[in-house]
Amino acid sequence: MAQIQTLQDRVPGQGHLVGRVIALLYGIVAYLIFFVTFLYAIGFVEDLVVPKTIDGTAALSAAPLVQAVIVNLVLMSIFAIQHSVMARPQFKHWWTKVVPPSVERTTYVLLASLALALMIWQWQPMPTIVWKVASPQLAAALTALSFLGWLIVLTSTFLINHFELFGLHQVANNLAGRPMPEPRFRAPLFYRFVRHPIYLGFIIAFWAAPTMTQGHLLFAAVTTAYIFVGIWLEERDLVAVFGDQYRQYRRRVSMLLPWRRSA
Length: 263
Description:
Elements: H1 17-46, H2 65-85, H3 89-95, H4 104-122, E1 129-132, H5 136-159, H6 162-165, H7 168-176, H8 197-207, E2 211-213, H9 214-242, H10 244-252
Antiparallel strand pairs: 1-2
Helix pairs in contact: 1-4, 1-7, 2-4, 2-9, 5-8, 8-9, 9-10
């Protein structure tokens, strides 16, 4: 994810007090929907606790393989297109003529959460096992590594301002009548070693699976491919915002694997 404090329009509180309160409530509801969906997604990928996981349920029979692949690719494409297109500055410039800038990020988060929820809801299980780790100790270690990936994801969002990333900071500032601060480049903690620790955390979480089914493998492979596309788009935007400052950072720090020493 981007090390940008904000790319939102930096405008003071908009409209009457009632409208700003409604915007705040909208932001809170959108955040709660995101948070519940995110927690469910962890159980979905890890095949734990939740009613329906990536490998389905005991009561849900598997669809024909070709049908399942097509449906799942469409669902992942819906999420990827929404997630990428709405994040681009050109789209934001147009979109903020339709919605107030103060709730642009909130709306993005809400639609991304709904796209993720749709994928989970309509996901077609492909339960045939590709590989399975026989050793209980190694299987437990892989599960722990996967949860470490999720922890890296969540921790990294707080390093770059979790509440701004998910739209709460914007609606709170709007209520108070304060403009958003100018975007500034930051590279705290994990960002000193890799440029995209959030994406790295997702890759670890998706691939560290003691049991890899066809469905899980398809999900991990497609989302990893999308991550590299997302990185290319995101870094193009970061260079446009920060120029040589980000170019120097990119030369100094590796993209996903901490193989280059940070200056």
